[in-house]
Amino acid sequence: MEFEYANAGSRTHEYGNAAKSAVERARESVGLAVDADKSEVIFTSGATEANNMAILGLEAYAKEEGKRHIITSAIEHKAVLEPVTLLQSRGFDVTVLKPEADGIVAPEELLRALTPQTVLVSLMHANNETGALQPITSYADVLNEHAAYFHVDAAQSYGKEVAPLLNKRIDLMSCSAHKLYGPKGIGALIVRRRKYKWPPIKPLMVGGGQERGLRPGTLPVHQIAGFGMAVKLAMENYLYRKEVCLKIKQQGIEALKKLSVNYHSPLDALPSTLNFSIPGVNSEAAIIALKGVAAVSNGSACTSSSYTPSHVLSAMGLDEEDIEGALRFSWCHMTGEVPWSEIVERLRSLR
User: Fold this and answer.
1) Of 63, 64, 304, 336, which has the maximum CB count within 10 A?
2) What mean pLDDT do residues 67-79 have?
3) Model pLDDT, residue 1
């Protein structure tokens, strides 16, 4: 897209057609990653917008059908919890499932929460703070005979943990390009047809017929093309990337044996994430001590502008000291050698 600058909606000249072709190639790649048809891919600004579109977009249908019950979990990203809370303020009943101590929401809890009035179940795949992988396939099995729409926030796992996201019982799926090392500001909502019928999503904005009428506005062709290439590379290399990330994780766990560490990530979580605390060590002090060695966080980047205790770790039942001391380390296949020994020594100096 270095030389093409046309509008993908301009189909009367060759430049517009070239842009349109780039968009459709990317749309096909994004869909193939989860075994979806390209017509089921709606481009958005990212997973946050996709989450809003999936949840708030069902409001009119839910009211028409008299089904105003939503199920979600206490460990969801704020981009899911806040739209759900908005619908709750508009008269919807909401059931918030609690995780076990390992950060996993049990499928049995979903089964118990289902009612004939349940219109939407929104449960993430991989948690953005702990990396805990939720049993998406088991949730799909629970919902197999139920009419509720199943939405999965797959921002952390799309293109990385492939098999569970192929499940056709997932009706709606959110993803972001930058989680795959693509451009920031572009993502998608996968809208799967069920028995040839589209989920009854209504647009949140109006003003154009783009993206099957669900999202108006000129398509950012350069970002979409970048998204498509990022997905293509991810699907070609996800096993290798996973292996590299797992090696870094195993090195970290081995190095951290020198400290008394309380892990808040299941060890079979995403291979690119560790969340832990060290008794007596405050996370803010640790972040300062690690400056110049490692850039780590004590929560989600999306809520870091005003730090509050992690709602994810609180939901898991951690005590106040563990929550305040929690550190999240994450990396990728391009990170290179991690100086775990120096990280451990700097953390040990704080005790």
Assistant:
1) 63
2) 98
3) 46
Q: Per the structure block, which two tokens stand in for 19?
A: 């842009």
- Full set of structural domains in the chain with CATH: 14-232 (3.40.640.10), 238-348 (3.90.1150.10)
Using CA atoms, how far residue 8 sits from 29, 30, 38, 214, 246, in Å, is 17, 17, 16, 16, 40
Whole-number Å distance between alpha carbons of 215 and 96: 29
Q: Nearest Cα to 219, choosing from 24, 14, 13? A: 24
DSSP letter assigned to residue 14? H
Q: Are 298 and 328 in contact (CB under 8 A)?
A: yes
* pLDDT on residue 2: 57
What is d(CA 272, CA 161) in angstroms, rounded to the nearest whole number? 11
The arrangement of strands across the sheet holding 262-263 comes to 262-263, 273-277, 327-330
pTM of the predicted protein model: 0.93
Q: Specify the length of the chain in residues.
A: 351
Task: Please check whether residue 46 is in contact with residue 178, taking contact to mean a CB–CB distance below 8 angstroms.
Answer: yes
Pairing type for strands 187-191 and 41-44 reads antiparallel
Please say if 302 is a catalytic residue: yes
CA distances 100 to 56, 178, 297, 316, Å, are: 28, 30, 23, 6
Query: Which of these is catalytic: 175, 245, 302, 332?
Result: 302
Which of 43, 67, 15 has the alpha carbon at shortest distance from 231? 43
Q: What is the mean pLDDT of the chain?
A: 93
pLDDT digits (tens, 9 = 90+) for 272-283: 999 999 999 999
Residue 351: the pLDDT is 78
Confirm if 304 and 297 have CB atoms less than 8 A apart.
yes
